[in-house]
UniProtKB/TrEMBL annotation, chains A, B:
It comes from Olleya aquimaris. GO terms for biological process: L-histidine biosynthetic process. The lineage of its organism: Bacteria, Pseudomonadati, Bacteroidota, Flavobacteriia, Flavobacteriales. Belongs to the histidinol dehydrogenase family. PROSITE patterns: HISOL_DEHYDROGENASE. HAMAP family: HisD (MF_01024). It comes from the Bacteria. GO terms for molecular function: histidinol dehydrogenase activity; NAD binding; zinc ion binding. Keywords: Amino-acid biosynthesis, Histidine biosynthesis, Metal-binding, NAD, Oxidoreductase, Zinc. This is Histidinol dehydrogenase. Zn(2+) binds at residues 255, 258, 356, 415. Substrate binds at residues 233, 255, 258, 323, 356, 410, 415. Its EC number is 1.1.1.23.
Length: 427, 427
């Protein structure tokens, strides 16, 4: 981790640059697979599953029997853990339910807004060295609370043609309505166009590699919404001497182990503290199974000494971190003034891991500075707001003239007429 | 308007198909202009303004003097109308403000969600035959309520190098912080990358032609959010014999005059009523200044007889109209069960024009079936939700073991360590 001391604001954008991703060369592949799946459906999907996942499947669909078997293969300890996490996520996302907002803007003009569920949603769960079943909770729990009718989960099969037990267990626990063994670009294409076995959905959620990311971006061209653009995970810790260096080191490492392109940044007012953290990192990293990944990620990472809290705040808002841990003696200052962050962890006993799994907040968050404009996944991500209006005769008499004048000024005579024809009857 | 009687569900997708748009050939142009603006800033912008708008400007920026002059050129009658519309829009969007949502998910684990403003937003207002100043109200009013610090409005200059008086008046009335004379692809590129005169923003709002639409889509690749993908405007009216045929005809025409690619659909249980409406359309269309546009749009348009209300509802949800007018003797049934629509107008005295201008609801709505997954613009469009969590020692003792087990099962040892290292001190 390289250290920078009170860097000038003009250097921040270079200093805080994310590890670059080149996606241009991927686009051709993604477009080709989309075309093929659109035209040839399951036949194309099977071809790519064989090509990329190295397995030929009799059927894409996961059976009830498979789910039952999976469930029986999970320890009761882990099941209990998953259930506690689910309950906290449920509690926090249920608290986000909103009532109808209704108001009479002018006498006789009643307007209201209601959230209604997105009926068909797709959840993509990557497979890799380990099954990321926590993401199933983060996406299926709010989908179920929102009232989504179809919750379709896609995840790539392993060489034996199976999806990990933990993913299947979490899926049935959280009300997923259909589980399909399909991954990568072909999964996103399937959810976009629909195939014989994959239902077409209205919105696709979930993380993935660069191929999945580009595929989700392409899906939006076909009218399918996505949760948000994705990028490598990142963490910024703001800590001073009131923090515990070994805790901070453990948090930075928890982020660094995600991938070599993960980015961790430490902002502190104390150089001594930064050095302590560095020592702790060196000590802790040795025993990690994923130490090579973590060490690579740490190469991209920076310690920034900011003596002035206001400057530190500006720098954090400029960076717009996905995860922000605050361990300072004035956390309230940062909490009150942070503008751009995905999720904020406050104090010495709020590690990022807590939010990744079990505190109740969602772990699907905007990376790459997107927290300047995007929310993390929340209950509203699974609904859309519809507005309604009911205007009485009196109401139209009250605003009719305004509509006529404005429509006229915009040169839209038929818009005006729609009011005039009614006003004529009312006057 | 062609009439279809009780069409079979298998034919709906063909029947309800939107007029197609081909955007592929536009993409090359858009990409080229983006590259040029990214590299050459204002110089490139000026070049395209000369090319597309046919005017050479000394300066892009609108001065306070220009705004004052514009204001003095607007009739006090129109000013009053704009102010009434603004007040209703303000009332409805202020009602959408939400409190912090805070909950203790487990003892010692407090999670909360707060909405914070998107600091820099761009508003695009097209120019054309007439100044669409109502869109300024629809976008700047909620931006100001949300607390966006920079509200940048871009609109193409006319041949004399000016933006319409009404747009300038509405902009200053609604707290726009900067007005720039720039349109089309070069405006969206400027807002995406920033130039000497155009501030870079985090999210771009507003309608536009196909070039602007493709440019906004490209902006998302560079990490700039957009309000929603756009398409031609559309209206579905569900009406029975309890409705007034001349009112319904006026509403259909108000949508049809937008553009030849606008789509209007009438759903009714009565063939007689449809014929009445058709007669009224023929009568009313004659006097419209934009009758040629309206007539062309009507060619794409359909009357669908649905004898069964449940079938009608299914068809409407399948189509997912941007605007939905309900004039039936059982509007409550449709209101309760509609799943997909942008904005709904209820009863004989709620024409779409009311929502276009002055009732208080927003007129920036999802077209092209996007209301299956997207909300119309609302207050939340100008904010993002940030989550926070504060976990006490007791809280971490309560959920620590769950985190450890789940992290272990996901093969993320450093995630587990971040908890274990703390629990060791606490136990």
């Amino acid at each position: 981790m390289k250290t920078f001391i009170n860097p000038n604001q003009s250097t921040w954008s270079t200093l805080l640059k994310r590890p670059t991703q080149t996606i241009d060369d991927i686009e051709t592949t993604v477009t080709q697979i989309f075309d093929d799946v659109q035209r040839n459906g399951d036949q194309a999907v099977a071809k790519y599953t064989q090509l990329f996942d190295g397995v030929e499947l009799d059927s894409n669909s996961v059976t009830t029997k498979e789910v039952e078997l999976a469930s029986s293969n999970i320890s009761s300890e882990l099941k209990q853990a998953i259930q506690q996490a689910k309950q906290n996520i449920e509690t926090f996302h249920k608290a986000q339910q909103t009532e109808t907002i209704s108001i009479e803007t002018t006498i006789g003009v009643t307007c209201w807004q209601e959230k209604r569920a997105i009926n068909k949603v797709g959840i993509y769960i990557p497979a890799g060295s380990a099954p990321l079943f926590s993401t199933v909770l983060m996406l299926a729990v709010p989908a179920q609370i929102a009232g989504c009718k179809e919750i379709v989960l896609c995840s790539p099969p392993n060489k034996e043609g199976n999806i990990a037990n933990e993913i299947l267990y979490a899926a049935q626990l959280c009300g997923v309505t259909k589980i399909i063994k399909v991954g990568g670009i072909q999964a996103i294409a399937g959810l976009t166009f629909g195939t014989e076995s994959i239902p077409q959905v209205y919105k696709i959620f979930g993380p993935g590699n660069q191929f999945v990311t580009v595929a989700k971006q392409l899906a939006t061209k076909y009218g399918v919404a996505i949760d948000m653009p994705a990028g490598p995970s990142e963490l910024l810790v703001a800590a001073d001497k009131s923090a515990n260096a070994s805790y901070v080191a453990s948090d930075l490492l928890s982020q660094a182990e995600h991938g070599a392109d993960s980015q961790v940044i430490l902002v502190s007012d104390s150089q001594d503290f930064v050095e302590e953290v560095q020592k702790e990192i060196d000590k802790q990293v040795k025993d990690l199974p994923r130490k090579d990944i973590a060490k690579n990620a740490l190469k991209n990472s920076k310690a920034i000494i900011m003596e002035d809290a206001n400057d530190a705040l500006s720098l954090i808002n400029d960076y717009a971190p996905e995860h922000l841990i605050l361990c300072t003696n004035d956390n309230d200052f940062f909490v009150a003034n942070i503008q751009n962050a995905g999720s904020v962890f406050i104090g010495n006993y709020s590690p990022e891991s807590a939010g990744d799994y079990a505190s109740g907040t969602n772990h699907t968050l905007p990376t790459n500075g997107f927290s300047k404009a995007y929310s993390g996944v929340n209950l509203d991500s699974f609904t859309k707001a519809i507005t309604f209006q009911n205007i009485t005769k009196e109401g139209l008499l009250n605003i009719g003239n305004t509509i006529e004048l404005m429509a006229e000024a915009e040169g839209l005579q038929a818009h005006k007429n729609a009011v005039s024809i009614r006003l004529k009857d009312l006057k």
